[in-house]
Structures are given as C-alpha cells and as structure tokens.
C-alpha cells in the first residue's frame, strides 16, 4: 500500500478533528499530507471518525488518483493547489487541514479579516484574510485560498470554516486549533467592545521575542 504510514497519520488527524466538540459532525473537514510528489487526502463520503487507511486516496501533484478504495474529498482540489504551491516554492509545508468549527464559521461569515488581537496571531502570520464566498470543492475556492495564504499559515474561507498549513500533520492541526482559538477570542472580545488590534510593528517584535526564552531579570 502506497504511503501506508502517511495514510495512518491522516486517519489519526481526522479522528482528532472529529473529537473536537466545536467541529461540525460528519464530513466536517479535509486532511492531507504530502510526501515528495505524492499526497494522501481524506476520502469523500466517510465520517472523519470512521476513516480507515485503505479509504484514503493517494494522489500525484497533477491530480491523478493512484491508489485508494474511495474517491478524494471534495476539497481535495483546494488541498492539491496548496501542496503544488508549497512544492513549487520549496516552502516548509507538507500538511493541510481544513475544518468547519463553530467559531471559524462564525467569523468567516461576518468579517473580511480576522484582526490580530493576541500575540499568538504572529505565529500564523498576523491578521488572517477571509476569502470571498464561493462553492466548496471548486477551483475558484482553491484560487482564493492560495491568495489568502500568501505570507500566512492559515486562512478563513467565507461561510465555510478554517484552513491551516503545517510542516507536518501535528503542526497543521495545532495551527488550525490556534486559528479556532483566535476566532473565539475575537468573538468574546467583541461582546465587550471594540478589541485593540496589534500593529505590524508589535507583531514583528513578538516574532523577534519568540526566538529566545527567558532573558533574565530587568536591570533597574
């Protein structure tokens, strides 16, 4: 079986998504991971918590299905576009996760951009763009997502949910959960008033600060 370990890892990540209480039930997202020029993606027509390794299609970067007992998920078009871009630009991205969580759907249905109101947003690239709405599973949504991901490790797909990238599946899932947390924090803040947004200079200082740990006590 091609990419057997990667297929197992995709199943484990899909189950982790399904176990999140904020994720929609059923086919509530898509998971993929790239190894060289081959990509494993979750299948169409199977709940995330019921996917088996043999279900997962293995695809080439030119969209050919090489193996797998089920068809690729509808959003495979979006995932393959991101993987092609990462491969072409030699970007340290091998995994893509998108999911329909309560908070990412809520934010993506209202805002044009998720502002950076917490320093952890710097880890995703700063403010997160929301793509224009279009039908899921189409080349159009893939094109919008690729543009929104420029300089970012996450994007929000209008009225659809969140999308995150990572150097591996664990990192991509962590980034998706961070995106979901940032969305929830913004929604809570808006209940109190207009949130203060971190500037690009402030985010740049956060990125610099992230490069080292404790700096010792301040000298008075």
Automatic annotation (TrEMBL):
Keywords: Lyase, Metal-binding. Signal peptide: none annotated. The keyword Metal-binding applies. InterPro entries: Aldolase_class_II_sugar_metab, Aldolase_II/adducin_N, Aldolase_II/adducin_N_sf. One of its GO terms (cellular component) is cytosol. GO terms for molecular function: aldehyde-lyase activity; metal ion binding. This is Class II aldolase/adducin family protein. The keyword Metal-binding applies. Residues 8-187 form the Class II aldolase/adducin N-terminal domain. PANTHER family: 3-OXO-TETRONATE 4-PHOSPHATE DECARBOXYLASE-RELATED, FUCULOSE PHOSPHATE ALDOLASE. GO terms for biological process: pentose catabolic process. Pfam families: Aldolase_II. It comes from Nocardiopsis dassonvillei (strain ATCC 23218 / DSM 43111 / CIP 107115 / JCM 7437 / KCTC 9190 / NBRC 14626 / NCTC 10488 / NRRL B-5397 / IMRU 509). Gene3D superfamilies: Class II aldolase/adducin N-terminal domain.
């Amino acid at each position: 079986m091609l990419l057997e370990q990667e297929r197992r890892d995709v199943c484990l990540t899909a189950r982790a998504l399904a176990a999140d209480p904020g994720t929609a039930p059923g086919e509530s997202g898509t998971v993929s991971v790239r190894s060289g020029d081959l990509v494993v993606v979750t299948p169409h027509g199977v709940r995330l918590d019921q996917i088996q390794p043999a279900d997962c299609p293995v695809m080439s970067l030119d969209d050919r299905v090489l193996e797998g007992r089920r068809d690729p998920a509808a959003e495979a078009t979006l995932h393959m576009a991101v993987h092609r871009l990462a491969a072409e630009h030699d970007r340290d991205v091998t995994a893509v996760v998108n999911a329909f969580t309560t908070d990412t759907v809520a934010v993506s249905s209202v805002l044009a951009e998720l502002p950076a109101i917490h320093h952890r947003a710097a880890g995703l690239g700063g403010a997160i763009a929301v793509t224009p709405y279009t039908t899921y599973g189409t080349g159009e949504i893939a094109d919008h997502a690729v543009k929104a991901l420029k300089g970012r490790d996450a994007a929000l797909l209008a009225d659809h949910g969140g999308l995150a990238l990572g150097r591996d599946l664990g990192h991509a899932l962590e980034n998706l959960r961070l995106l979901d947390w940032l969305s929830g924090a913004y929604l809570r803040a808006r209940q109190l008033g207009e949130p203060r947004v971190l500037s690009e200079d402030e985010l740049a200082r956060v990125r610099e600060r992230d490069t080292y740990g404790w700096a010792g006590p301040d000298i008075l």
